[in-house]
């Protein structure tokens, strides 16, 4: 664990989010636990520090410390040994990233267009479309029934302003699908 003494004279409340997270991580390892539960440990941390956090967290198993992390950043989840999706107390998926993705029956297309908000609204209410999620300058359009999705998207494919590409579903696509399905289940 890297400890920076530059802030040794400051009160915890006056530290930056990055320093607070670093202090929290360091302090929870002081009693040498066997299991460490971390809830979004990189929240409020800049990209460079995020990388360092994960380098430190990955070193914990070498010290006989098991780590369970909850994260909403799918790029962080993709680097874990095993993942689990839990919603409303129900385990929806569990295994390695490859195992979880291989069991997914999701079809995903990525579309780019200049007026994404309008396209997203139209697609979101179209039959055969389960989720429409904006990511940067494109939309991920997904559904578990690939043929129904293909039928719905067919008229849009003739529009020269739209650039369509079939995509391998990612963890973010699967997360959105699982979450959407879980929200529709009775609790």
Radius of gyration, Cα only, in angstroms?
A: 21 Å
- Largest sheet, spatial ordering of strands: 6-7-5-8
User: From the coordinates shown, what is the CATH architecture of the largest domain?
Assistant: 3-Layer(aba) Sandwich
> What is the fold named in CATH at topology level of the largest domain?
Rossmann fold
Order of helices and strands: HEHEHEEHEHEEHEH
The main pleated sheet reads as: 4 strands, antiparallel
Supply the CATH class of the largest domain: Alpha Beta
Superfamily (CATH H level) name of the largest domain: P-loop containing nucleotide triphosphate hydrolases
Portion of residues within helices: 25-40%
Structurally, the number of domains stands at 2
The geometry reads as elongated
In words, what does this structure look like?
The protein has about 190 residues and is an alpha+beta fold. It folds into two domains: about 5-100, 3-Layer(aba) Sandwich (Rossmann fold), CATH 3.40.50.300; about 105-170, Lrp/AsnC effector binding domain/regulation of amino acid metabolism (RAM) domain (Alpha-Beta Plaits, 2-Layer Sandwich). The protein has seven helices and eight strands. It has helices at about 15-30, 45-60, 75, 95-105, 115-125, 145-155, 170-185, and strands spanning about 35-40, 65-70, 85, 90-95, 105-110, 130-135, 140-145, 165. A hairpin with a 2-residue loop joins β6 and β7 (about 140-145). The chain is elongated and about 65 Å long. The termini are far apart. The mean pLDDT is about 85.
């Amino acid at each position: 664990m890297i400890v920076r003494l530059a802030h040794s004279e400051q009160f915890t409340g006056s530290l930056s989010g990055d320093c607070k997270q670093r202090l929290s991580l360091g302090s929870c390892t002081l009693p040498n636990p066997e299991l460490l539960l971390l809830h979004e440990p990189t929240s409020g941390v800049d990209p460079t520090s995020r990388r360092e956090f994960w380098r430190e967290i990955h070193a914990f198993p070498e010290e006989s410390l098991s780590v369970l992390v909850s994260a909403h950043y799918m790029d962080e989840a993709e680097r874990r040994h095993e993942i689990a999706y839990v919603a409303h107390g129900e385990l929806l998926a569990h295994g390695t990233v490859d195992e979880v993705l291989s069991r997914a029956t999701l079809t995903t297309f990525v579309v780019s267009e200049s007026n994404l908000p309008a396209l997203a609204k139209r697609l979101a209410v179209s039959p055969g479309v389960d989720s429409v999620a904006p990511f940067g300058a494109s939309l991920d359009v997904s559904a578990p029934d690939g043929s129904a999705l293909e039928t719905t998207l067919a008229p849009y494919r003739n529009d020269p302003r739209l650039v369509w590409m079939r995509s391998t579903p990612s963890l973010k696509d699967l997360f959105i699908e699982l979450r959407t399905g879980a929200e529709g289940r009775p609790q």
